[in-house]
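Re-run requested by the PI after the first attempt was lost when the workstation crashed. Everything re-entered from the original request form. Ligand of interest: EPU.
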Amino acid sequence: MIIEEHKSLKDYNTFGIDVNARYFISVTSISQLREVLNSDVHKTHLLLGGGSNILFTKDVDALVIHMDIKGIKEEVLDDNHVLLHINAGENWHNLVRYCVDKNYGGIENLSLIPGNAGTAPIQNIGAYGVEIKDVLVGCTVMDIATGELKELTAKECEFGYRDSIFKNKAKGKYIIVSIELKLTRKEHHIRTDYGAIQNELESANCFTPTIRDVSDAVIRIRQSKLPNPKELGNGGSFFKNPVISAKEFDVFHNAHPNAPYYKVGEKEYKIPAGWLIDNAGLKGYRKGDAGVHKKQALVLVNYNAASGKDIIQLAYYIQEKVADKYGITIVPEINIL
Ligand code: EPU
């Protein structure tokens, strides 16, 4: 077991923020993970997957455990379904392309989302009309207190929009060690209802798309407006899209009749935070090395040497401007540490 000290986390978070971990270890097996949890190196642990949804604002005085357990197992369920058991350290996008290559349908709309399989359920990753909860049947977690493994069903994960039990009552209780996805082998449910995909496929003259066509279209759309973390540090959407009541929506809609919105349930409306920020004149805004992305206002970027504090200051500024202009509060979907 090699535990490093004062290790830079710059390469372990997609924002590229340079903070140090007091102790750091990459674990590649369940037994190693158990051993680390049993050790008394430090009383606090921080679990790190792909580092794509975290903003470090200071050095981490803890034992950082980088989950790097790899491996995918397949179980054919019937003529039309396969169950994949995916270990937490598998890169999410590589998994999507593995499925596309094998013609396993269900996660093609989630192409190019940064991060790892094991952290995907925490915020119930979603894009272009699909969320991981639509295909996830369960996950295996390790109870941090006892080291025991436990199976959680999808229902027990209590998924919501960018939300799950792992962000709420089970926060700090479990480590997800693997996830189970039920995917289709033949009768794929091709989801192109999200406007951008339809347009992208039509402009490529693709009218009967395969899952590969959908994945390729999503990749093209994302590449056209979302920055590649390898080139420009970022954590994807920084804020959640706010959900407001029908009463608040009436006021908002009267003042901004052209703003996009989605009705959720009977009495609530979701407003794209990207539009709110953009329409407040902040798209492309930059302060030092912290900025609002030029092509998608929901994404904050690190142009080079921004600190986590620089990014968070920018986020506060944006929240204030949005609240002043629309009376709507937007909250980060990124974990701030
Ligand atoms: N918009 C603007 N200006 C902007 C950004 C967006 O006017 O700068 C408008 C768009 O024109 C569109 C609407 O806002 O009418 C929605 O934009 P988009 O379709 O790009 O989606 P989003 O709501 O900004 C959400 C997810 C993304 C996901 C896309 C596609 C959240 C917080 N974000 O973004 O997820 O890729 O939908 O499904 O729900 C992520 O979580 O990291 C992420 C990228």
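Saved to the shared folder this time. The chain is about 25% helix and 30% strand.
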